[in-house]
Amino acid sequence: MLPQTASEVIFEGGKEGKVGWSSYREEAIFKNVDKKQVIQAAKVGLGDAGFALKHVNNAEGVVFGEHGMTLHDWNIIAGVYIKEGEHDKLVVVLVDGSKDIG
């Protein structure tokens, strides 16, 4: 359901917050850090949010996680996408879930 590579994602200027019935998007810019640090931060952040890591691809700049069933969701997936700028890293986080009615 989510893009598989960072090159498929629109960086900068996309709508943030709730962007669909059960879809969310956030953007961030990290200055003076390398790509490995951003990927490590994405892995830790997803883990802290209760997501199990499903796939990490350093070359493509993506980290995927999956959160199992909750009281209101059947399944939640998240993708962290990293694009390298000259002195910074642009990051987009996309989250999509299957919501229960109600």
List its salient traits.
102 residues, mainly beta, 6-stranded antiparallel sheet, 1 helix
Brief summary:
With 102 residues, the chain is mainly β. The chain has one helix at residues 35-48; strands spanning 17-18, 23-31, 52-57, 62-67, 73-84, 88-99.
Helices and strands in order:
Blueprint: E1 17-18, E2 23-31, H1 35-48, E3 52-57, E4 62-67, E5 73-84, E6 88-99
Antiparallel strand pairs: 1-2, 2-6, 3-4, 4-5, 5-6
Summarize the structure in words.
The protein has 102 residues and is mainly beta. It is built from 1 helix and 6 strands. A hairpin with a 4-residue loop joins β1 and β2. It starts with 16 loop residues before the first strand and ends with a strand. It has a 6-stranded antiparallel beta sheet with strand order 1-2-6-5-4-3, covered by helices on one side.
Average predicted confidence as pLDDT = 88
Order of helices and strands: EEHEEEE
Indicate the multimeric state.
Answer: single chain
What general form does the structure show? globular
List low-pLDDT spans.
none
Largest sheet: 6 strands, antiparallel
Q: In order across it, which strands form the biggest sheet?
A: 1-2-6-5-4-3
- Based on secondary structure, the structural category is mainly beta
| CA-atom Rg in angstroms | 14 Å
Count the strands? 6
Helix content: 10-25%
Distance between the termini: 23 Å
| Proportion of beta-strand residues | over 45%
Query: Please, how many helices?
Result: 1
